[in-house]
Amino acid sequence: MKTPLELLTDKKNAAAERLKEKGYLSKKRVYIGMATCEIAAGSKEVMAEFEAAKKQGLDIYLSQKGCAGRCHVEPTVEVVDPEKGPVLYTKVDAKKAKEIIQKHLIGGEPLAEGEK
Amino acid sequence: MHNRSLEVFGKAGYFNSQLRIALRNCGIIDPGDLDDYLNVRGFEALAKVLSGIKSEAVIAEIKRSGLRGRGGAGFGTGLKWELVAREKSDQKYVICNADEGDPGAFMDRSIIEGDPFSVLEGMAIAGYAVGSDKGIVYIRAEYPLAIKRLEKAIEAARKQNLLGKDILSSGFSFDIEIRLGAGAFVCGEETALMQSIEGHRGMPRPRPPYPSASGLFCKPTLINNVETWANVPVIVVEGAEWFSSVGTEKSKGTKVFALAGKINNTGLVEVPMGTTLRHVIYDIGGGIPGSKKLKAVQTGGPSGGCIPADLIDTPIDYESLGKIGSIMGSGGMIVIDEDSCMVSIAKFFLEFTQSESCGKCTPCREGTKRMLEILTRITEGQGKEGDIEKLERLGNMIKKSSLCGLGQSAPNPVLSTIRYFRNEYEDHIKNKKCTAGACEKMLSYVINDKCIGCGACKRACPVNAISGSTKQKHLINQDLCTKCGECYKTCKFSAIDKG
Questions:
Q1: Does domain B21-245 have CATH number 3.40.50.11540?
Q2: Which of B432, B410, B114, B436 is nearest to B268 (CA)?
Q3: Which of A64, B120, B471, B490 could cross-link to B453 by cystine, CB 3.0-4.6 Å?
Q4: CB distance from A42 to chain B under 8 Å?
């Protein structure tokens, strides 16, 4: 019989597989802060922009995340390029979200103001 | 396992000097996806203890780590676990206290919204260690998103056999349910919280018996704060030695603070115990906006005290903060600049505790009311000689004789501001003057020679206290003036002096 640790390892591997299937390693990952504070700052609109872009065929791994504690720069959007590493965008609104989609996700060039 | 935010957010100065243990996954993983949590070594701690570690050994490990309750009082977590484990009973309970009520504090909300699984895992480990199969999260109803995420997390964990019956085929069963609080501040107090879960009115009861012997439904109960629970899996995976290498001699690990008030970078900060207030305010918080001077820092919410600017090199740990008249509390940290009046700040916090006093014991119910009356009259320019002494006497009496933590700590903001800013109180009482200009009732508005007689203030005044004919200098009748400030806001020629 398997020990709890071995059973957990199985679960972990299955979870990793599922994430990979969703494109965790192959696609650009976009994380949008969706805690109460970020939603209050307007992150739902930002999420809607990315969701719409994804529906129109933009091939990304889109996910929500909790609050990283940076209240003064919310809402935050983090774009992780599997090859180039993460870029963090602060105080994102719908307009800036469109820019991120056009320039960073489609064009491949991070916006100048993104924190690396 | 800890500090992954550094890998993700790297250079951002805000994170550089932080050490994130409780917040390790906040802002990094998808809180709605168990797969994400499993990927960051989630539930490894639980699986580890279930794979043959004895419950006594788990408790010993928590004890050696030196973890203390993050809810504010700082009671040794391992010792608490041991006390509950020692009790013999057919049923024991494990409770997570998520009734976060301090104004301006949101550590617990952030942890539950950003990383709900780590709290569940911590509770399950404790359930195994003390011999309980039932966990309850008591969370305030004002956190709808946190509740939703928690419900989803519990459901997902059950589906994967990480909660519920026979967890990971180990024979150990543990399930968690959620109870909502109706928003009473006093229900964050452990005995009141349990009364509330039982369906009674949320009021504290005298201790002993302590919850470890007779808690929820008169059964042995282990209750810890959200942040404490979030620390537990890290201790089990990384070991007590590693955890106790962080922090000071008596306060181990890290503490999350909610930075608020007059500070550039408001937000959540997690720093090792022993970090100085200066470091948190200036290096992480980015200092005070508008190059204003720091006046004081208020820690511990309405139960804490004000620490004056010249003591900001004090290391943050349970003992040091206690020594200077404040408390660690659950982690609120409000920065106060020179524009603030300390008397009205003390009044603000007392107003809060006074209205949240449950009314069961006299010192808290009556005492805080009388203190508030005295403070109100001081800020309205009606202060009398001897009021400061009266406040001190009442405050110390309430501290010593109240039934629960709410009353025992309610006078702290007043006592600490008297201790460090006595001159401001004296100014209010003797000179009827508020130097910071914050006490509205003590201000007077006077029209100066810049007045061109446009009549705008006259029209704005709700009590018709301003007189004067067109193109002539106007005059404010001080007897009629209610100091509402409307004229001051209306005047376009800076012709009204406030002071």
A1: yes
A2: B114
A3: B471
A4: no
Rounded average pLDDT over A73-78: 91
| B4 has a pLDDT exceeding 60 | no
- Give the nearest chain B residue to A19 (CA atoms): B35
Whether residue B229 contacts residue B116, with contact meaning beta carbons closer than 8 Å, is answered with: no
Asked whether the ipTM of the predicted complex exceeds the cut of 0.90, the reply is: yes
Give A-chain residues touching B143 at CB under 8 angstroms. 36
Nearest to B153, CA basis, from B4, B231, B36: B36
By Cβ distance, the residue of B48, B115, B160 closest to A5 is: B48
B31 to chain A: which residues are within 8 Å by CB? 64-66
pLDDT recorded at residue B329: 85
CATH number of the domain where residue A79 is located? 3.40.30.10
Q: Are A15 and A51 in contact (CB under 8 A)?
A: no
Half-sphere exposure of B103 (CA within 13 A, CB side): 14
Closest-CA distance of chain B to residue A102, Å: 23
How do residues B241-251 score in pLDDT, each as one tens digit? 999 999 999 99
Query: Which pLDDT tens digit goes with each residue over B277-323?
Result: 999 999 999 999 988 899 999 998 888 999 999 999 999 999 999 99
Inter-chain CB proximity A63 and B26 less than 8 Å: no
CB contact under 8 A, B27 and A67: yes
Query: Is the CB of B160 less than 8 angstroms away from the CB of A64?
Result: no
Q: Which residues does B6 contact at the CB level (< 8 Å), separation at least 6?
A: B15, B16, B20
pLDDT band at B14 (very low <50, low <70, confident <90, very high): low
Q: Do B47 and A4 touch (CB under 8 A)?
A: yes
pTM comes to 0.90
Percent pLDDT > 90 in chain B is 82
What does the alpha-carbon distance between residue A100 and residue A76 come to, in Å, rounded to a whole number?
A: 12
A11/B contact by beta carbon, under 8 A: yes
Dihedral angle computed from the Cα positions of residues B260, B264, B267 and B273, in that order, rounded to the nearest 10 degrees: -80
B125 contact A CB<8A: no
8 Å CB contact of A35 and B33: no
d(CA B5, nearest CA chain A) in Å: 8
CATH of B443-498, one of 3.30.70.20, 3.40.220.10, 1.10.10.10, 3.30.70.270: 3.30.70.20
Q: Which of A18, A63, A66 sits opposite B114 (nearest CB)?
A: A66
* B83-87, B365-369, B460-464, range with the lowest pLDDT: B460-464
Q: Give the count of domains, chain A.
A: 1
What the block records as the tokens of A7 is 């059973």
In sequence order, which residues have a C-beta less than 8 Å from that of residue B112 and are 6 or more positions away?
B98, B119, B139, B143, B146, B149, B150, B226
Q: Which residues contact B145 (CB under 8 A, 6 or more apart)?
A: A35, A36, A39, B113
**CATH class of the domain comprising B354-430:** mainly alpha
